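Before surveying the methods themselves, we first show a specimen of the format, giving the amino acid sequence and backbone structure tokens:

:::
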Amino acid sequence: MPQPVTHAQAATSQHRSNRESLRALVEHGDFAAAQEWLGAHQVWEIVDAIDRMGPVDAVAAFRLLDSDRAFAVFEDLEPSGQQAILEVMRGAEFSAFVDSLDPDDRARMLGELPAKVARRVLEGLSPAERAMTATLLGYPEHSAGRFMTPQVVVLREGLSVAAALARVRDRGADAETVYTLPVVDSQRRLTGVVELSELLLSDDAATVSDLVVTQPPRVRATEPAEAAARLMADSNVRDLPVVDAEDRLLGLLTFDDADEVIEDAETEDAARQGGARRWEGHYMAVSVLQLARTRAVWLVLLLAVSLLTVTVAHAFEEALEQVAALALFIPLLIGTGGKVGTQASSACVRALAIGEVRPSDLARVTMREAATGLLLGAGLGLLAIGAGLWFTGLDVAVVVGVSLLLICLLGALVGGLSPLVARRLGIDPALVSAPVVTTVVDVLGLVIYFLVASMMLGL
């Protein structure tokens, strides 16, 4: 017969649950303290803690949650964590979980799950939920249609405010959002939107047509989700109507889904700018082997391209033998040029992403980056001449200063223009960002350095 828990033991367990992380408690098998930890933390904290765990520990921790919090936590978990949990569920519990998810969240989850698990999820849905999910899965991956919610409260212009509010109360429980209420005509074509706050503050006798905002921002279901999310940010709307080719309402892109789209896009851009592929799942839960695999391909390619630097140095071997001091400044020159290129590339990739710069601005960007590169090069070049005088004579110091001026100009132009050229060619600008720009500037910077040295020193 188990012994009753004393006050001292309970206090010790509570202290330990507060002091240790959820992962440590589960690994040590202290499930009582882990359950107390879960009860004392918010949903977002629990999600972060479970995402940091391996599949086995994540499932064990998830099983300790009560049903209401389990649904909330499951919706926000990484796909790898959701898959691990679904694989251990059976019967009615499995059906209840997948049926409780919002259609848009479920469709995105299915797009990332293995085919076997995805098929099992679809089979566990009710006919109505299965039909909604199948509709969303019919849109292209990463499109607005995949991220929209079809569960919305729709109004007609002729309704009174009292009737509209009654409709919201009647159908709002099944909708994902009621803050923005689309208004449609008899053909379900979007005519405008009404904010719930406007209805609540208006006279009951007024009509929806008195309050409707006509020609609101909207997006086609087949357009990229990232473009839709950026449009929401630019137009400062909470929810964005999603329509078909004939302007018929299909659903809404909500602000939380838009935030997720932006976060995913920026995560992917950051990985590419660092010369790596994006990994799936939480960083702390990803294996070291998987992290290495996401970085290895780019590093091998960059290593191959970097061999051009060795080729350039070998081609000017005679110049190096005549003036050995030239070799002292190679790291300074290529390092500075690479940094200038990286700064320009990062700025332009970001400006492209948020719509501040367009491919049609190529000429203006060229002038701005050229001026910026020359300004930086002039200042850094003077500093380099001063440093060069400390180590060598005036002749080599001037070579270094002039070379640095030209290399900064080169770095700013290559870094600033490559994202715009990539966009015009239909290539993701992040792919030609920091690592590629740095490598190109390194190679061409060496060529500039040795050509300037050959001309100024008569080599």
